[in-house]
Amino acid sequence: SVNPGFGGQSFIPSALDKLRQARQRIDASGYDIRLEVDGGVKSDNIRQIAQAGADTFVAGSAIFGAPDYTTAINAMRAQLAGND
After folding, report:
1. I need a surface site. Which of 27, 29, 32, 48 has the fewest CB within 10 A?
2. What does the radius of gyration of the chain's CA atoms come to, in whole angstroms?
3. Helix (H, G, I), strand (E, B) or coil at 17
């Protein structure tokens, strides 16, 4: 979802297609496998990432770089719940 190497990078939108493909393969396998995205996850894109098939999110810089952790986490939860 980002170029590897360091935190705080922007999400690469083309990764959404890869997520969709990975989710399709996981679902077709019949196994209960979680799909995690680590890199570039923020409140403004977490819903798209979830809709592409991810069900676990790592959002280090988006949370720990925010002035208020609780506000950042609540914004992500609201996006996932569909509450803009």
Report:
1. 32
2. 13
3. helix
Q: Based on the number of CB atoms within 10 Å of its own CB, is 73 exposed (0-12), middle (13-18) or buried (19 or more)?
A: middle
The domain of 38 spans 34-84
- Distance from C-alpha of 60 to C-alpha of 21, rounded to nearest angstrom: 25
Distance CA 49, CA 65 (A): 20
Question: Tokens 């999110």 belong to which residue?
Answer: 57
Q: Examine residue 45 and state whether it is found in any structural domain, yes or no.
A: yes
**pLDDT tens digits along 13-50:** 999 999 999 999 999 999 999 999 998 999 999 999 99
Predicted TM-score (pTM) of the model is: 0.87
